[in-house]
Amino acid sequence: MKMNRQFLAFCLLPFAVPLQAKVLDRTVATVNADAIMLSDYQKNADPILEQFRKTSPAAEQTPERIADIKKRVLDQMIDDRLLVAAAKTKNIHVSQKQQSATLLF
Questions:
Q1: pTM for this entry
Q2: Residue 59 exposure: Cα atoms within 13 Å on the Cβ side
Q3: Measured on CA atoms in the order 25, 40, 52, 83, is the torsion positive or negative?
Q4: Where are the beta strands (DSSP E) in the chain?
């Protein structure tokens, strides 16, 4: 009987590991019950910050300037969510063709 318990404990060990997993994503802002996740924020902010680091002189790459860019990215994401919500309440629909046309200008 003792051996069976050890075998069972050994078999269940791999399933105990996920219980120690950490949360990898978190909410950075909420707009009308719509969460902006850290992963989505990073997808938007990382390319902008990378471009800033490549094109700006080192003297301009201050922590304050980087924080300002990060804040602007989040503010834009919030504004986008608010615009989508306002469009839904006013029953405004934009076709894929119209969205593509606006990207050309």
A1: 0.68
A2: 0
A3: negative
A4: 27-31, 34-37
